[in-house]
Structures are given as structure tokens and as C-alpha cells.
Specification:
8% strand; 16 helices; 359 residues; Arc Repressor Mutant, subunit A; metal-binding; DNA damage; binds zinc ion; three-stranded antiparallel β-sheet; mainly alpha
Amino acid sequence: MAPLSWRQHTLIQALLSRGPLKEHDFLSIFADVTGKSKDSHQQLFNDYLRKINMELSYVQFELRACRNQYDGCVYYGVINTVSDEQSKLGTKYTVPQIAFYKAIIEAIVQDSSAQGAISNIEALNLRLENQASSSQAPVPTALKNFSMSQKDKALQEFVQDQWLCDTADGKIGLGVRSFLDLRSWFHNNEVPPCDVCNEAGIKADLCPNDSCNVRIHQYCLKAKFSSRNEKVCPGCGTQWPYFMTKAEAVEEEDTDINQPPPEPLVQKRSKRSRVFEENGSNSQEGGSNGSSQVHSSSRKRPRSSQNTDEESTGPSQSQPMTQAARRAKLEALEDLEENNAGPSQVTRRATRKSTRLQR
Ligand SMILES: [Zn+2]
Ligand SMILES: [Zn+2]
């Protein structure tokens, strides 16, 4: 096979050195190096990515696209396809930091209300003991002794490195790197998918009918409902409360809704162990509507192409919590920790226990 050209190397280098890039930035680099735009040369673009991925696969990397579910923007990034956190995060993060990251991801994807985020306090209160490799073995002291301030520092690093993000409403959500990286993990672990695009519905709107499991990304709802008078749940037919803002309506006119969603560039799905183990305590977790939404693999369906590529208006990158506020919160939490935590922590420990990020 012909080696990669300097043009293809430039694209890889840009993604490796600058981290995940917004679609617009990635496409303008493509235009710079090739002198052609993706819109008018889709085939060339696809060929580039295919060739790049063929080469990257030898070193277990992959160039792929994903959507940031908080603002709907598409990102391109190079990810490590080796399936253990140690190889992905290990050169930069310590063992307890990685365990902390895993605990946060699990807490976010298990949220039956699909907010796609947990509060700072919830994150800091996560118990790393549950992340120990075996329930029989003694918990490593490094996990046990991981303090609040160490957790807080790790949170900031994860946000900085885009493994996590600060959401617009001041919570902790998944970063673009996690959306890129955990794509197959979401599927293998039966994170309930969006009814429109079939990608994991981490941050999504839920059908107003409590007995219906349908969840849809906000940007998919927009694409689905904007051109239609009938705004009902595709699963149960319940009226879906969806109101398009004026700005969205204007923007909609410029949008080509026939554009395909960002497909994975290489589809690779190996069956791995599941997070949601048989009938772990998870099935009792959410009461009336929680558990039913966790186990919904039966609703998976082929992805549709009703997706749009419009820019979202959500300011997901904003960081509403100031350092001072964080510090104050942290101090309060450390006091709490010394007093051995309140009852909420006990319940949280019980409900989170069953799930584990397994690779
Ligand atoms: Zn969707
Ligand atoms: Zn429904």
C-alpha cells in the first residue's frame, strides 16, 4: 500500500497535537492541505480518512467523528483503540485518578433522567473502593486514601484535557474525548440509545410518557420536529413538548437535513463484558421509570439519516463555577468527609455498586 502523503500526515498531526478539533477547524485544515472543500469533494474526503485509518490501525489508533451531546457540535479526533484505561490515560494519570474517572463516567451514563451530568458534589463523593479490581481483594490504599482535594484537582485536569467538561449549568459532564473514545463502550454496555440516531443518549430528552423508554438528543429532536407539524414520540405517539425558538427556526432554513450524521469512520464493535450486570441492584435503582430505561437494548434500530449538522447555540464550554466557589465547596466537603459523610453518601454507595467499567 502506498504510504500516506504529507497532506494526510498533516491532518493526523493536527489532531494529535491539538486534540479533538471542531468539524469546522478540521475541515478547514483539510481544505488548506488539499485545496478542496469537503462539501464539493466528499469522495476525496472519505478516501483520505479511509487511508489514514488503514495506517493508524497498525498502531491501534483511529480517526473518528462524534457529536458533543451538550451542544450538538461535531468533533474529529484520533483515539487509542486499545481497550484499557491504563494504556489510554496511564501515561498522564495515576491509578486512583483513572478509577475516579471511571466512577464519574459510570455515574453519568447511569443517570436515568439522561441529564448527562452530575454535580461537583456528587462527583467528589463517588467512592473509589467500588472500582477495585475484585470485590474479594482488599481495596488498594491508593484508592482508599484519595482525598477530596486530590479528586478536585483530578476533576480540573480531566476538564482541561477534555475527558470531562463543565456543563453550562455548572455540572460535570463528559468531555469530547470521552464521547469519541467510549463510543463502542456505550453500545456494549447498553447505554440507552437515542431513538433518532441510535447513538448513546447520554444527554437527551425523555419521552413525557413515564412508561415509554424513548430518549432523543436535543439536536436530533430539532432535526426531527422542525420540519413537521406533528410532534409526537416515535415510540408511543404521546405529544412531545417541543418548541423551536425563533433563532432555530431561522437557522433551520439554511440547514440541509439530508446530511448524514457523523458516522464512525471505522465501525468496530467487539462484545465486551457489560456494565449492567444481569440483575444487579441497578434494576431496582430508579423506581418507576429508572430501571426500565437502563435496559432498553430491544429498542435499538438502524440509524436514520435525519440528522443535521447545524451549529448549536448551547454555550457548553462556559465555566460558570469560579475557582473561589470551587474552593469554598471543597472546604465544606472536606469538613463533611471528616465527619464521615451524611446519609446521602450511603445511599449513593448502595445504588452505584453494581456497575463497573469493565474492559
Ligand atoms: Zn440522536
Ligand atoms: Zn414515548
